[in-house]
Every structure is written in structure tokens, then in C-alpha cells.
Amino acid sequence: AEGTIRLVEQPGISYLPFHVIRDQGLLDRHGAAKGIEITSEWAQLSGGAATNDALLSGSVDIVAAGVGPLLTIWDRTRGAQNVRGIVAGAQFPFALVTNNPKVKSIADFGPDDRIAVPSVGVSVQARTLQFAAAKLWGAENFQKLDELTVSLPHPDATQALLSRSGTITAHFSNSPFQQLALADNGIHQVLDSFEVYGGPTTSIIIYTTEAFREKNPLTYAAFVDAYSEAAAWIAENPEAAADTYIRVTGSKLDRDLILSILSDDRFSFDPTPRNTEALAHFLHDVGALKNRPESWRDYFFETIHDRPGS
Amino acid sequence: MTVLSPKPLAEPVRTGPAVLSARDLTLVYRTEAGAHLAVDRVSLDLAEGERLVLLGPSGCGKSTILKAAAGFLKPAGGTIALRGRPVTGPGPDRIVVFQEFDQLLPWKTALDNVMFPLVRARNLPRTEARAQAEEALERVGLTRALHQYPHELSGGMKQRVAIARALAMRPEVLLMDEPFAALDALTRARLQADLLRVVEEARATLLFVTHSIEEAVLIGTRLHLLSAHPGRTLTTRDVAGLTPGTPAFTREAKVVHDLLFPQAEAADV
Amino acid sequence: MTVLSPKPLAEPVRTGPAVLSARDLTLVYRTEAGAHLAVDRVSLDLAEGERLVLLGPSGCGKSTILKAAAGFLKPAGGTIALRGRPVTGPGPDRIVVFQEFDQLLPWKTALDNVMFPLVRARNLPRTEARAQAEEALERVGLTRALHQYPHELSGGMKQRVAIARALAMRPEVLLMDEPFAALDALTRARLQADLLRVVEEARATLLFVTHSIEEAVLIGTRLHLLSAHPGRTLTTRDVAGLTPGTPAFTREAKVVHDLLFPQAEAADV
Amino acid sequence: MSDLPLLHSPSLLARVWENQIVRRLAVLSLLGLAWELAALWQNNPIMLPRLTTTLAALAEAVRDERLLGAAWVSLSVLLKGYGLALAIALALVALAAANRFARDALQTLTAMFNPLPAIALLPLALLWFGLNEQSLIFVLCHAVIWPFALAALQGFESVPETQRLVGRNYGLRGPTFVALILTPAALPSLLSGLKIGWAFAWRTLIAAELVFGVSSGTGGLGWFIFRNRNELYTDKVFAGLLVVILIGLIVELGVFRTIENRTVRRWGMLK
Amino acid sequence: MSDLPLLHSPSLLARVWENQIVRRLAVLSLLGLAWELAALWQNNPIMLPRLTTTLAALAEAVRDERLLGAAWVSLSVLLKGYGLALAIALALVALAAANRFARDALQTLTAMFNPLPAIALLPLALLWFGLNEQSLIFVLCHAVIWPFALAALQGFESVPETQRLVGRNYGLRGPTFVALILTPAALPSLLSGLKIGWAFAWRTLIAAELVFGVSSGTGGLGWFIFRNRNELYTDKVFAGLLVVILIGLIVELGVFRTIENRTVRRWGMLK
Ligand SMILES: Nc1ncnc2c1ncn2[C@@H]1O[C@H](COP(=O)(O)OP(=O)(O)OP(=O)(O)O)[C@@H](O)[C@H]1O
Ligand SMILES: Nc1ncnc2c1ncn2[C@@H]1O[C@H](COP(=O)(O)OP(=O)(O)OP(=O)(O)O)[C@@H](O)[C@H]1O
Ligand SMILES: [Mg+2]
Ligand SMILES: [Mg+2]
Predict the structure, then answer these.
(1) Is E101 part of any domain?
(2) How many interchain CB pairs under 8 A, A with E?
(3) CB–CB of B74 and D6 under 8 A?
(4) Which residues form the domain of B78?
(5) Tell me: the pLDDT tens digits for C224-237?
């Protein structure tokens, strides 16, 4: 009912606005402004699939996950739960890094190379790699690199890459793993998602079900306001934001590393989605989505339809 | 004045309605190889206070009959009834002493083994059960082994605990399968006397299996002789009131021996 | 000319060095409650071909002595030796027939149970082992039960399979713990005769436990009488060459009975 | 009154009911019905599809997505891992049966490693074997060895003393003793260990395929489930699970039951 | 020559070696040494940290990161789930021991559900119980019930016939029969089932905590491991695993061993 909200995040710096909301009590403040008292429950889940399960089972109200999971759940729940995005969560590049000095572009991967992605075929990293292949070799060859990819969670892949022990020679990574890897002298970047999609691209989206939005308009609005304020605050106070992250999550990561990520101008929490349509259309073209979204507005609620998204 | 014909010796003295009676009892085991006929149309009757001894060669079905009387086996043919009502299952009105050494519950000491049915089936309070169990164990000469677990007892000691457990229950019907086989002569004689006393006192009905013809004549009021596998009735003999050591006793034992083993006279013993 | 003193009857005829000999053998079980003295300084000697019978009340340590001779128990005191060398463990030179009914391997039929040690310890080829096993089972009267599993056998049948298994092995030393206790008189008499023949033929040495004094006098060349728990030597008696049924045999049985149970004369049997 | 085997001539219905297959089918039908009703009542097909939908998805997956091929990929890895694990476990347990220090060592190892989740071993597996089938087999071994060793050790230690003494009496020791006496005598426990090991091999394989994934192209059943879960094709997920269930049933009834009937039940060691 | 209990007076060294704790410590020391050597030889601290490093990390995590608190969170969920699972399993098995149809049903259920990975149940757990402890407990029950039921059923079915007949003879039936005869007679198998169930409860809990994460700040041991893995603190990951191992050892030696020594070993049912 109006006034309670259950939110889910995953571990990682991409969910910093949530941490700020919690740290500064922004939901309370914006709820009060709308005349309601908001009690919030926060949960952490370890991946997109679990997140979607939690949302669909009605265990949580608002979740944050990658663009891929959102597009999938939007596609599957059309006409039923009608899950759609509220705002864009974060945009940042994820990088394909390698410890094979010979690889300068994806064309240089040989048969002995192995590229780790979170899950072959379905993760956003895997899709991006297919997208890059399609751009390079033509649409019909989008699966050309698939036989080199293996599924491995980010931490394991980073470990394998850094330790040079496994058969892994490349990793389509994520923050902060790519920063950790790139800090190693023998590891370099092959490409990143911004290059593939041709500019800054949204990676994380905050989404919910139609029912929650309709039954709790005030709470929903309070959340949007809180989120926007948090995003703006981070952009203005990267140092304080880094401290917030360390304080809220108890992270042991190096503060300088966090700060360097936050002050990287490719890293932003702008609520406006960018460059998501390209991925959506690609997913439809390869058959992963049954419905073809005409524009990004199809898979976002009206909340931010007035913005210049893409 | 009419002349009374002398009572035939083989006819038992019936003192009341049959406590346990079997009519054409046929018992069959179901095995891999098919049906295995163990007992073939055996009839027997036990009146109250009567002591019937089953005698027969190894494997002839004595234990099987006992198990049917206890309610563990369903007849494939014929009937078996307790006070006129068909036996439908086991129960504490018929206490069994099994032939096997593993009939004690290994997780209970000798004392606890004897107390167990007193508490569980007779519903005695623990202190009373304990007193009775101690007395029963004393009578079988195991006062010093009260707190030993079965795996720490010798073969004969285990059987004595089982006997004590059964006697302490003072059941209406007592079914005993070679209870004294593992005992030395002295212990055996003592326990035979003890058994007779308990059975007499409680007016219990006893179905008893043994391989010793002397024991059979001593214990039984009647003998039921079985042929070799599958068990069929050879004959029955009334042996009530024979005193061991008397010529009548010895003669009866000899008769029974010859009935059981007609060909044995040619053998070396 | 010197006058030869008559040979004392109790002194056994030694025909060679001791096959099995115990000196002050003391056997102790370790239990929860502490050490449990089962056998106290017993000495015995078995010459080749000799048949020593252990007699004593239930729980006096007969089985324990047998297990020590088999090599399952280490003496807490004294020594036990086989042809002069201390027993250090079990082996197929001393085949044991246990007192328990569960000594057959439940996953083998009667036939396979008898064949097993022939193949595994005697290293006979399977066909020969089978022939010998079948013969042994025939001798104990189990021709029709060759392919039955132990759980489908009666108590006495199980013991007969165990006896057949031991006899088929023709071991130098045979250790038997009340092997005939569960058998009827006829089968028992046959198997006693059979045992004596096999032991004689193979010049085997036999250590035998029984509760039957007649059986002891019949089987043994010498008896070893034990006191009640803990087992101590009462006396030994030379009983070689006594023929059952003769007055000498009956007299010896009476003497042994009185030695074992001095107080029994007052008892009712 | 059925404590011992006995012969009787029951009614036709009772005789049909005697047949284990019939009773099992009854159980399965009840379960299917329960599923269908639960799904109808829940009415949330993306979380709990109906049985009928799932069966349709199963047929489709078999036809179009090589589901059986995926099942075979998993099954072959599973069999390799299971076989290897059993060999290792038997060797360890045989050693433990013969030597007290080995027994202590095995018990300690089991107490330590049994509670460790497979996921904890993945990095090490990667380090030692690389990203391939061998790593999966390593993880499978971990899933099977410890529970099987526990059950086997309990079985060996429960062998009736007389049977142990009989074996020793014939001079059997070491491996021969274990093979000829302890193993058949402990077969009921060994079989229950085998069943538990088999089940946990499946659980672990499916879970490991999820985390570990595959080198693309040759995905197994776990991968099939994972991919469809990520894409929210819940009916296909349930179809994959149904395959796991079916294989479980076939193995239980076809293999373990048969072994049991021919051995321990025939020998009277299991009621 | 130690087939039966016997008394002897061994040398001092042998007497020290008699002590099980001493032998276990020897095993542990050997394992620790093996780990240290493997880590030194591998020289790849990001994949396999040294034992000493791990111990330091453990101390630090206990001091600064409430590792013990996290362990307690997990342990308390574990105990709840384990206890509930045992209660359910015992009820099922008791029913199965008394009734043939129930036995068939239980065996079928076990064959079907035992191979299912916990992860397959998470969505259903979420659907039915929501994102909370109850879901974890549901998944734990799944991990424990089936293997325990298998072991218990095998134990019940292996009870020697004579003992079963003795119980029946005293008129015991149904729950009393199960409680007073079958349960103690099958205790060795039940204990091995308890141990296996305990281990798999841990495995499943750790794995489930990874997927499930935390709600409201109270992460358990699995989450601790997951978080540190995400931040590539391998030494902390191993410290977390070490806690799992230590708890496993304590429970095995402190609880299961003690029960075994006071019951089945004392009763001569386990060698
Ligand atoms: N569980 C069983 N399954 C199949 N056959 C059995 C079973 N129990 C006994 N038999 C068979 O039934 C017959 C009779 O067995 P029973 O135990 O009644 O004999 P018994 O007269 O008690 O013999 P003994 O004096 O040797 O104990 C035997 O032929 C035996 O093989
Ligand atoms: N495993 C054991 N642990 C402890 N004590 C035992 C053990 N086995 C036997 N005993 C004890 O040792 C003594 C001798 O037992 P043993 O089995 O040798 O007697 P026995 O002479 O064979 O008796 P029986 O004629 O009754 O078979 C008994 O007092 C018994 O309680
Ligand atoms: Mg019998
Ligand atoms: Mg004895």
C-alpha cells in the first residue's frame, strides 16, 4: 500500500544513488513533501535473474538491474504485469580487456583465446560483443565470436585474468573489475561499450511493475524525486559520494579507485536513458525479444517521456 | 452297572475351551523360487494351562508354526484361532521367546530389556517393572550382568535374558522356541523347573519347541510330533504327570524317540 | 625286571608336540564399566589328532577361549601358541564354527557359503569346490536347500551349513562352538559320527565346546572342565575310547556331571 | 499382519495394487494434479507455469532446441564425475576400513569438506584444471565423495561382528576383506550412499553449469535452464527441470531398484 | 589382531596415539602443511592465498567485519531449517515405515526431488514466501529432507527381522513402534543421514545466500564470502570458508561423535 516501498539493488558502485538515498533519508524527505510517511526496506540480490524473480513474485517493488534484464522482463510481461523502466540508473562503459598483447581489436582474437562474459549469449556483455561482431563482419555474422566466449562471473574472470592461470585471455568486464584489471601492467583494453553503441550508453535501469505505479502514485513520485536528487548530488559531490559508498556498503575497495571511477566523466547517473534503443532493436533482430519497441518510451513509464532519451 | 472303558492314553485331558487351536494349518513362504510349503495341514489344540511341545527334525516347520501362533504369519490354508477368534496379528497376550540370539534389543542393557515389555505392554510403573525385572534376572542367574549390553553377553546369557523377559511378563500364552538350547545342564534344569512353576502359577498355556526328547517329556503335558519337511503331524502323545527318572518317563522317552526316528535303530547311536 | 606302574587314566596320551597350547591364558574384555575378566589363567594342550572338549556353565568363557585360539583376541596375560609359535591373528589353518546363527554370509546361498572358503582360502578351482561343497551339504542333509539364502533357512539348517562349511575345509585345527545345539537327536547323532570320521581321517585337532556331557564324552579324547565366571580350570579328564551305551561311558558322564555341578545332587534333576 | 513373507490370494484390485509400478504411477498422477491445481490457483505463469504448458514447452524444446542433446551432454559429464568420485571414495573408505589413522583422516576430511559449497571450489578448480570439463568433474567429485564416504563408512562399521570374524577366519585382509566381506555386508548403506551421491551429483552439476557456464555451443541441461531463466522462459525452465526429474525417476526405478531387488532384498538384508 | 575389544598395556607413544583428538590434530596439521606448501608452490595469492595470510585475514575479519556475527546469522537460519527439515523428514519416514503406499510415495518423491538443485526452487520460494528467511528455510528443507529420508528409510528397512518381530510381539505399532524399535535399531543410518543432511544444509545455505543476498543489513556467511569475492579479497573468501570448515569440525567432533560414542558404539552397533 501507499507509503511502503521495498527496493532491490545488486552489489557494486553502479547502485550508488540507492546508497545516497538511504544515507541521506531522501525517501522520507520527499515522502513528507507529498504528505505521506514512507517506510522502506532494502534488499541486496546477486544478479539480474534473481532480481527479476523477486519483482515478479511480488516480493519487492522497485528494482535496479541491467538494460538486458529490463528488456527481457518488459518483453515477457507485456499485457500482464507490464514491467517498465522508471528512470535510467547509471551510464558507464564496460570494457573488453585482455592479457593477450597481440589482441588490439576483436578481429585479432585467435582460436586459443577465451573471452569471459557473465553468461554466454544472454548477458549484456555477451550481447554487446555480438553487436560489435555484427558491426565488424555484418549482421549475419553476429555470433562469430560466440565460440570463444565462456561464462564466468566477473570476480572469477578477473581473478583468472590477473593470475594468468586459467585459459581465460579476455574478459568483457564491468566496474570496478575492469579498473582492477587495467591496473595490471599486462592487461589492456580492446574496446568498450561506448565505442560499440557509438556514445554514452545507459547500463542500469530502475524499474517496477505497472501495478505498483498505479496503486502507489505518491510513493512512486517520491521515489523518482529522491532518485533524481541523489543522482544530481553525486554528480556535484564525487568525493562525498565516494565516502558514502564506502560507509554504506562497508566496501574495502581503495577510495582513490572509487573516486577515479566517479570522477570519470563517462560515468554518470543521469536519469535520462541513452543509446538503449540500439541494443533493444538488436535483441529483437536476433530473436531475443518477441516485441520490437518503436522507441525507448515503450519500455519506460511516462515519468521521463519528456526527456530527450534514446 | 456299566463297565467303563479305560481312558486311552493318547487322548489329552481337556480342562476347558481351547486357548489356541489350529485346524489344517498350512503355512507357505513366498520365495524367489516360488512357494515354499513349510507346514502342511497341521491341527492342534491347547486348552488353558496345557503345555504342548512340538518335536520334529530340523527344518520341519516348528518355528514357523510358532510364528503363525504369534500372529507373524498368515495361514495359506486352514485356520489358527485364539480362544475361538482367528489370530489376526501379534500381541502381548502371546509372548514369544525366539530361537535367534539377536532377539534382545541391542540398545538396552539386560535389565532394560526385561523391563521394556513390562513398561510398554503391561503398563507397569518403572519402579515396579524394575523390581520384577531384577527378580526375573536373578532367577536366571544374571544378577551380576544387569547393566551389561547384549553384545557383552555370552550366547547362553542372551538366551537367559530373553527367557527372563518372557517369564516376567506372565503372559496367558507363552510361545518358546528352543529357549534352553544354549544352556548347560544345571542351568537348564533350574530353568525348566522355574518355567514349570511360573506356568503353573499363572495357569499359562505353553507352546514349546525343543530338540531334546527328555526335555519334551518333562515340560509337556502333551507332545506333538512332526514329520520332516514339510511338517505334517506324525502323532500326538499325552505325557502329563511323568516324573523324570521313573521307568515310565524313560519308557515314554524311548517310545517318542522311536516314533520320531523309526530308522534310527539301525544307525550307530 | 622292573615293574611298570599302571598308566594313570587322567594323563592323556601324547602322540606328538602340542598343536595348540595355552599357558596361563588370561582373557579380559575392555568395557565401558572397566576391564571384564572372562578367562583366568587357563592352560591347555592339544596334541595332533587330539579332541579337547571345553565344558562349563553358561558365561564361563568357553567361546572366549575359542576366539583367542582363533586369533581374534589377544591374551591379557599368559600365552597361546600354535605349534610352538604365538598366535598373532586369525587364519584358515584354524576354521571356526561360531555359536551364533548369523555366521553365514547372507548374500550367498547355502552352496556358495560352503564354496566360499574353499575357493578363497584353499584356492580350489570352482568346479572342484562346488563338488566338495555339494558333498558336504549332502552329508548334513541339505541337498534340497543348496540354493536357498540363509534368511530362508531354519535355525538348525543354518548351523548345519556352517558345519558343512567347516568340515569341507578339512582344516588342521577345527574350533567348534556348540555346533549341534540347534539340532534334533537324529541329525545330531549323524553329524557327531560324521565329525569324528572327518577329524580322524584328516588327523585334525579339534577344540570343541558343548553343553551336553554325553556329547562331550562321546566327541572328546579329553575334557577340560571350567568353573563358572570367570573361567578357571576345574580339572581335565581323559575320556578317549569310551563307547556310548557302555557302563564305562555312563559312569564317566555321571562323574563329569558331579564334578561340574557338585551341588546339583540336591537339586530336582 | 505382513511382517514376514506370506502367500495369500487377494482380490483383483488388491493384486493390481500389489504392483509397485501401479502404485508409483498413482503417486505421479497425484503430483501432476497437485502441480496443475497449484499453478491454476497461483495464476502467475511467468513464475509457475501449468503442467500442460510445461509439457508443451518440453515437446518444443526437444524438437527445436536439442534439449535431449543438452541432457546427454550433462549426463555424460555426470557419469564421468560420478564414476571417478565413486572410485576415489571407495579407495578412501577401503583404506579407512583397514587402518585407524586413515579412518580418522577420512572422518576429519569429510567433516571439513562436506559442508563446503561447490561454488567455493570453483576458483581452485579453475586454477588447477582450467575452464573445461575437468573442472566440472572436480566439483562433481567433491559433491559425491564425502556423502558417499560417510554412508559407506557407516555401512562398513555396522557389519555384524560374526560376519567380520568369519571373513578374518578365512585369512581375508586388506582389499580382499573389504571386497568380499565388508562391501556385500554393507550393501544397503552403500546403495543409500550411491543414491544420495547420484542426487547431489545432479544438483551440483546443474548449479555448476549455471555458474561455470560452458564453452559456448556445448551447453548442458543446467545451461539450458539458466539461459531460459535469464530470458524468463519459465515454462522451458520447468521443462528442463522435468527432464532432471524424469532421469532421476528412471535411474531410481531402472537402476537402483533393480540392483536392490536382485541383491539386498533377495538376500533378506532389506525388508 | 584387533577384531574384538581387548586389553593391553601399550607404550607411551602408542597410548598417546590411542587418543582420537591427538590423531585428529595430526590430520589437521598435515592438511595445514599441505595447504601452505600448495600455496607457496602455486605462488598465486589471488587464486590461492597462503594459510598464514588466510589466518591473518580471518583475525581481521573477526575484529573489523563482524564475521562471527555473520556466521551466527547463517548458523541460526541453518539450525531452524535443519530442525524443521528433520521434523518433516522423520514424520514422512515414520509414515513410510508404517504404510506401503506412503513408502512408495516417499521413494518416488525422493527420486524426483532429490536431484533438483536448490536454485531451481528459489523462484518458487520467492513466490510462496517472499524475500526473507522463510525462503531460505524452504530451500534448506529441500536440501536436508530427501537425503535424510533416504538414509533413514534404508536404516529402517535394514532393521534385523527378529528385533522387528520382538517389537510387534509387545503390541507396538505405528509411531510407538517407530520410536521405540525402528529408530534406535536404525540409529547408525540415521546418524549418517544426519551428518549428510547437516553438510548439505551448509552447502545450500551458503549458495542460497549468494543468490538471495540480504534484506535489512543482516548478511550471513555466504554473503560475506560473496562480497569479498566481488572485491577480489581472496584471503577473506578463504577466511569465510575456514569458518565453515571450523564449524563443521566442531559439530562433527562435539556433537555427532559424542552422540555416536554414547549410543551406537556403546551398544556395539558400530565397530
Ligand atoms: N523366511 C523364510 N523364507 C523362506 N523359507 C523359509 C523361511 N523361514 C523358514 N523357511 C523354510 O521353512 C522350513 C521350516 O522352517 P522352520 O524355521 O520353521 O524350521 P524348524 O522346524 O524351526 O527347524 P529348526 O529346528 O532347524 O529350527 C524350512 O525348510 C525353511 O527352509
Ligand atoms: N564382547 C564382550 N564384551 C564384554 N564382555 C564380554 C564380551 N563377550 C563376552 N563377554 C563376557 O565374557 C564372559 C564369557 O563369555 P563367553 O561368551 O566366553 O561365555 P561362554 O562360556 O561361551 O558362555 P555360553 O555357554 O553362554 O555361550 C561372560 O561373562 C560375558 O559377559
Ligand atoms: Mg526353528
Ligand atoms: Mg558361548
Answers:
(1) yes
(2) 79
(3) yes
(4) 1-93+173-269
(5) 999 988 889 989 99
Within a domain: E85: yes
Contacts of A57 in chain E (CB under 8 A): 123, 126-127, 130-131
pLDDT digit string (tens) for D68-114? 988 998 999 999 999 999 999 999 998 998 888 898 899 999 998 99
- Please give the distance, rounded to the nearest whole angstrom, from the Cα atom of residue B97 to the centre of ligand 3: 11
Residues B155, C63: C-beta atoms closer than 8 Å: yes
Q: What gap in Å lies between CA D94 and CA D105, rounded to an integer?
A: 13
CA distance A134 to chain D (A): 18
Assign B49 to helix, strand or coil. coil
- The β-bridge relationship of strands A62-66 and A84-91 is unpaired
Mean pLDDT of chain A: 88
Q: pLDDT category, D215, cuts 50, 70, 90? A: low
- Which residues in D lie closer than 8 A to residue A57 (C-beta atoms)? 44, 47
What is the structure's pLDDT at A253? 82
pLDDT at B4 exceeding the cut of 80: no
Position E210 in a domain: yes
The answer to whether residue C100 is domain-embedded is no
Atom of ligand 2 nearest to the CA of C29: 4
Using pLDDT thresholds of 50, 70 and 90, give the confidence band for residue C268.
very low
Question: What is the three-class DSSP state of D216?
Answer: coil
Residue D58, domain CATH: 1.10.3720.10
- C26 touches C18 (CB < 8 A): no
Instruction: Tell me: do B86 and B198 sit in the same domain.
Output: yes
- Chains A and B touch, using 3 or more CB pairs below 8 Å: no
Of C6, C165, C21, C8, the C-alpha closest to C80 is C21
CA separation for the pair D187, E52 (Å, rounded): 43
Instruction: Say which residue the cell 577384531 belongs to.
Output: E3
pLDDT of residue B9: 38
Is A173:A154 a contact under the CB 8 Å cutoff? Answer: yes
Contact D166 C106 (CB under 8 A): no
- Report which ligand 1 atom has the smallest distance to the Cα of C145: 31
- What is the rounded average pLDDT of the residues C53-75? 93
3-state secondary structure of B208: strand
H or E stretch covering B238: strand B233-238
Which residues sit with Cβ closer than 5 angstroms to ligand 3, an ion? B 63, 99; C 154-155
E20-47 tens-digit pLDDT: 788 888 889 999 999 899 888 878 777 7
- Residue E215, pLDDT above cutoff 70: no
- pLDDT tens for each residue of B66-82: 999 999 999 999 999 99
Q: What is the domain extent for residue D256?
A: 50-262
Ligand 2 atom nearest B159 alpha carbon: 26
Flag if C187 and B157 touch (Cβ within 8 Å): no
Q: Are residues C65 and C83 in the same domain?
A: yes
Are A59 and A41 in contact by the 8 Å Cβ rule? The answer is: no
Residues B70 and B26 in one domain: yes
E strand or H helix that includes residue E87: helix E67-98
Closest approach of chain E CAs to the CA of C182, in angstroms?
Answer: 17
Share of chain D above pLDDT 70, in %: 91
Looking at the structure, do residues B116 and B224 belong to the same domain, yes or no? no
Are C30 and C9 in a shared domain? yes
Q: Is the pLDDT of residue E73 over 80?
A: yes
B116 near E CB under 8 A: yes
- What's the total number of domains in chain D? 1
Residue B256 maps to a domain: yes
In this prediction the pTM is: 0.91
Any domain includes C99? no
Which candidate, A285, A276, A208, A266, places its Cα nearest to that of A54? A208
Measured between beta carbons, which residues in chain A are less than 8 angstroms from residue E136?
A: none
Which residue lies with its CA nearest to atom 22 of ligand 2? C63
Interface probe for C, chosen from D170, D173, D178, D264 (most Cβ of C below 10 Å), is D170
B162 plus B178 within the same structural domain: no
Minimum mean pLDDT range among B193-202, C11-20, C175-184, D155-164: C11-20
- B155 close to ligand 2 (CB < 6 Angstrom): yes
Q: Does any ligand 2 atom lie closer than 6 A to the CB of residue B151?
A: yes
List, in sequence order, every beta strand (DSSP E) within C93-211. 94-97, 173-177, 205-209
